[in-house]
């Protein structure tokens, strides 16, 4: 009987198919909640490889289950949606859809999870237990995972022992990176509408100026990170948008601010939300505003906080398989909704990253200190992982990590 | 031979016609530069009354000239355009045009100047000299007067000895108000575009945040009026609009501010424009902005500064005719382009106001301190002068003021 | 019988004495509430000239009363105190007292009022009625006039029909300047103490930073003049002092701001005081301050608002006597406590200014636009009125103004 | 031959003496650069125990050298100075000096290093190599370590292989805490003097207001931490002091800010210093300041960045000796000048902390979330480590750590 890791020796048999699938997927990106073609392609393959397949979970979500005797149940997740960005990579397999692009690498995630599913399916002698392959829609809008849960995911799948997910990021292709504890921030958007009393620009004394009020709020919001949060506690508060008035000589009635915050503990998150409200109210009072401000929290993403034991187990497996290419991952200020699923199911999880940059280009950029200026990052119209060894590494990472629970005698 | 003031005893002969004309004009408002119907109605009447008429001056402007022997030349000006405001007065003769309204009272100005022209035409025995009746388009956009000048106004009319204009404002109908020296402010709009370097909201350290920069500029602009202008020198600086970004989690590349300033001397105007530029540059520097801000001045209105001698002469004539209804006018923070014409022609001028509010309502509002809360002002969708005695007063004011130059033996 | 104005022909008989007295007074300045020597010199002379003299009124105040038959009672006031400033004029009669100087010209006021008293005393045939010569201490500290009132002034003097005062200011010596209505601002100082919670500078998250709070209050206070007060209404708000903390790395517990405001109507004054409080409270709330701020108003000076009829009567008398040297006075942003007396007594008043600058130097500075850079103003260590025609003009102004009530047949 | 760790079994023989010495030292605190008595007590003991003793190094510094055959050279450092704080602990052995107190625990450091020196001296059979016991003055003022270096320290001692230091902090007594990499921040103070142009508070238009300028700088400085530093990079910028003006109605000529910053990389430190300068200059420009601001950096403390290998070696030794009482140390925002010595000598170093709080009180405070409100921290007038097991633990920690280099066969 082959070992779980031995499965990977067979990667060459699927390489060409996987690459063709990936190119096709990259060329046909679909926006959040519209992943119809992608889901079809995924479901068809899973069925062909013997998975029990559930489609339309949470809209366009697909779940494949492969039961292979007693043992642990491992959930692996890939997200499927693309972004409303026009591709500018010039790739031969660039997006054929106007202003839609796989600019966040979800096509890599789908291709790798499919590859791992295929290898596990064709080497059932090498492991035992149950594999759940979860293809999630709408990660970019933050509601895809919740959508699958709301649609009854818990009743469809056996309860996992562990949940795994990965993301391709700038970094040398071929490397895998893990981190225990907080790894992705929680994120919340906040809309503040402050009220003045409009009037003619030449008679400010008859008005309450909401432009000045909004500006003072923007200024004061800077004090939250600068003064209220411990220096060793990462936190971000960005005012991404400010809008008030339309003419130079009319003082408007209101101003609207759109904020985004990133935190790594629920305590800090609550503190910052409370401070935002306190500041909006205090400044409105100081302006003599005729009405309390409206404060609305939206587009919330959960904290991704990797389980210590699970991450250690994956890191050990990665170190054995990838050697020096298994690296520590830095804390990211990005956010994800993956953790909604294990959190709802009460399952420990870990989330790692894989590099997607040409290793030589990466090494040069690190050497020259030009990583941020020369390496296109996720959400850039120029973001394009090198196909290999990215696909092989992402496929192997899933098999190796799952193997830490599924290899005979691994419990 | 009747006296000039005696002309006004004949007002009753034109009252009904003038009121009908006014109601029709109010019902058919036309936006700036589109005063075609209005101009036609005006030109037809002027011709009928014996004026030499020039049409299409500066687009839709109309000039009527009535020569009546030796003597002074008096230019009287009315503006013709309406505003993009939907009327809400409920008047029987309310606007029939969607979202267009004579909300600034220019229909009163036109009706009064036509009335004065008619009376002067039919009582040529009572005065001598030349009357120039100038019907100007596009006062609201600030370019109507300049348009007439650019179109050769100076070559069409004899050089005036004096230029006169009036405006209906909240105040007891029946009153006329004069003021020597500055009476309306100059006005300028300024667009400031400041540059940051955009990026993801979770990575502010890789960006230069133009939202924070714009907010700090708004805050600092308050110091110009508060600290740099003498307390006894009226000045206003309003930021009517601020716009930056469209999403909470994307730091945008730039922010745009639209400012409006009002001043009463050219020195203060230049000081404030220089301070605005200094602040925009200093704050951009303090933010580490990658590019100098762009600063564009637009929609400039000139200072209206009444000639001392001319105003005194009109005030004496008003006092004789209107008695206690001739009052001092307060300094206004509004702006006008009327003075462009006399300034270009090198002619002294005065600009007065007439009340348009029901006298009892006005007296009550003054008594109760509720003028600003109960009396609709110009540019309000509820602004509607009482027809009389407003039209009679505005007509008489023009005849009386002109008479100060045209009455036999007045020089 | 000579006319009142005719009295002034006799000025030459007192000129030398007055100048000697002035030089001596200038050389011996006394601080507020310490005007002992000055009061003695004044009282001795008044007695010699037949005045009923009251000394020690409100500390060092002196009141002289000269009754001269039926007629109006005219109160004239001069202030006596000097400033804690070291004289740098280099005058032959410069201050002999270290760091004390008549830098505000009160010595001129005293000398002129004494001169007028002497002339009126020696020409009792030329007028009838009662003269009250009031020499007030402690104008600079704002409490001298109230001190005299509190000490029973109303019971000592007959009720005046009018109260008069004057001040020497930069301007051509020989000129007198009047203004109806508000002429000097009211003034108030405000101390704001805001509370934070101190701590180590490296742990801001455990503190509430009062330095940031105080800075934001300073910034926001600029919006009162810039946005809340009508542009045509003069008003000033200065933060003259800010103090918080003593070490770079200790976040202090509190910060103290000292404000000064100048207004010309009681309504504006109350509005600004309310806005200051609203802002201090709103900003403290926005900072999460552990305690409400303390707000203390101190050093209040009243508004000096000249009576219209009284000022017109004085202006007519000045025009007759001084001709082209009688000028309109500009609104001043300085403050005075003179009006406390007539306000308490229910008496109409006027307050005028006289020029103290060499007329040629003044004309040149006006021509060159260098008034502010070359002419030392009151409170400068270089302030020194030219002795003549300043003393003669100030003396004449008092006699002429008083004469408008005291000349036979003037009522 | 006993093992190094075995030395510690003999601690009981020195306990009473050490405690008596500590009580005496606590009762006789000495300010920075004035540690005369302390140095005498230390030097006398070191000599008695066979050390080669150098006194007066860098003022009051003491160096003891104990050579014990071939082997590594280990430098151990204790700081000796107290703080200008009045003790409020009520301890029987409280400070006998007015307003001076060992409020930072340096007395613990001295007692423990002396204890370790004594034990190592009396058990020379258990180790080999050289021990350098360095008693440093003036840590609180940041110049004690540099003073010893400037006074020739390098020529007095053999070059160490490793340098060790420790600090007592709030935490359960009995615990020792280590951390590789940055452990204490670098610190810099910055004095900014900004220039306005003073004048009377009622005439702001003739001035440049430095109070408003300083306030706007304080406000804008908040954006450095909030926007310019990566969220995962700890950094602090505090404005501990702001001072301008002395009277409410005088606009002063200048304002002075005192800042303190804490950083954990030299790159961040340089970035922040550059940003401070950029902001001070940009805001001065925006205010129209007549002169560039002055910016002075003072009281700089170096970054304390523990060597990875050295810290790992100490942590392993601690784990063996202290078991579960060996814990990871959190990143501190405090600063120290200890690292000046090893940095100058080119020696790797580590700096650890020991707990000084009664373990039960600590456990309760952690449980209740009241650590910050109930446990007095360093620099508090209530700071008082429990004597034991603090002294024993600090003594043992030094012996154990040194033993990692000095135990036979340890290299």
TrEMBL record, chains A, B, C, D:
The keyword Coiled coil does not apply. It comes from the Bacteria. The Mn(2+) ion enhances activity. One of its GO terms (biological process) is diaminopimelate biosynthetic process. SUPFAM superfamilies: Bacterial exopeptidase dimerisation domain (SSF55031), Zn-dependent exopeptidases (SSF53187). Its cofactor is Mn(2+). Keywords: Hydrolase, Manganese, Metal-binding. InterPro entries: Amidohydrolase, Bact_exopeptidase_dim_dom, Peptidase_M20, Peptidase_M20_dimer. NCBIfam families: amidohydrolases (TIGR01891). PANTHER family: METALLOPEPTIDASE, PUTATIVE (AFU_ORTHOLOGUE AFUA_6G09600)-RELATED (PTHR11014:SF63), PEPTIDASE M20 FAMILY MEMBER (PTHR11014). This is Peptidase.
């Amino acid at each position: 009987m082959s070992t779980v890791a031995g499965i990977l020796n067979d990667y060459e048999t699927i390489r060409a198919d996987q690459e063709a699938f990936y190119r096709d997927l990259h060329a046909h990106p679909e926006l959040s909640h519209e992943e119809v073609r992608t889901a079809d392609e995924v479901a068809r393959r899973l069925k062909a490889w013997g998975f029990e397949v559930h489609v339309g979970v949470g809209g366009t979500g697909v779940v494949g289950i492969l039961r292979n005797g007693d043992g642990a149940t491992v959930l692996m997740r890939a997200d499927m949606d693309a972004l409303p960005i026009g591709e500018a990579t010039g790739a031969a397999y660039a997006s054929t859809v106007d202003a839609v692009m796989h600019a966040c690498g979800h096509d890599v995630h789908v291709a790798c999870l499919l590859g791992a599913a295929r290898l596990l399916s064709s080497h059932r002698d090498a492991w035992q237990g149950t594999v759940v392959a979860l293809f999630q829609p709408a990660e970019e809008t933050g509601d895809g995972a919740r959508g699958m849960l709301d649609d009854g995911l818990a009743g469809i799948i056996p309860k996992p022992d562990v949940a795994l997910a990965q993301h391709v990021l700038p970094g040398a292709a071929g490397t895998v990176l893990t981190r225990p504890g907080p790894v992705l921030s929680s994120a919340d958007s906040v809309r503040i509408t402050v009220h003045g009393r409009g009037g003619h620009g030449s008679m400010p004394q008859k008005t309450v100026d909401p432009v000045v009020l909004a500006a003072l709020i923007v200024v004061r919001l800077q004090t939250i990170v600068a003064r209220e949060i411990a220096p060793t506690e990462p936190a971000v508060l960005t005012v991404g948008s400010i809008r008030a008035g339309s003419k130079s000589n009319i003082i408007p009635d209101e101003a609207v601010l759109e904020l985004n915050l990133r935190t790594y503990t629920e305590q800090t998150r609550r503190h910052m939300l409370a401070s935002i409200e306190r500041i909006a109210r205090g400044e409105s009072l100081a302006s003599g505003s005729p009405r309390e401000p409206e404060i609305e929290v939206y587009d919330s993403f959960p904290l991704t906080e990797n389980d210590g034991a699970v991450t250690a187990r994956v890191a050990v497996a990665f170190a054995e398989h990838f050697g020096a290419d298994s690296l520590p991952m830095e804390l990211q200020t990005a956010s994800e909704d993956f953790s909604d699923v294990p959190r709802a199911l009460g399952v420990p999880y870990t989330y790692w990253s894989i590099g997607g940059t040409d290793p030589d280009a990466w090494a040069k950029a690190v050497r020259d200190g030009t990583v941020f200026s020369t390496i296109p990052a996720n959400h850039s119209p120029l973001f394009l992982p090198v196909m290999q060894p990215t696909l092989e590494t992402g496929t192997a990472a899933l098999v190796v990590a799952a193997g830490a629970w599924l290899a005979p005698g691994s419990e």
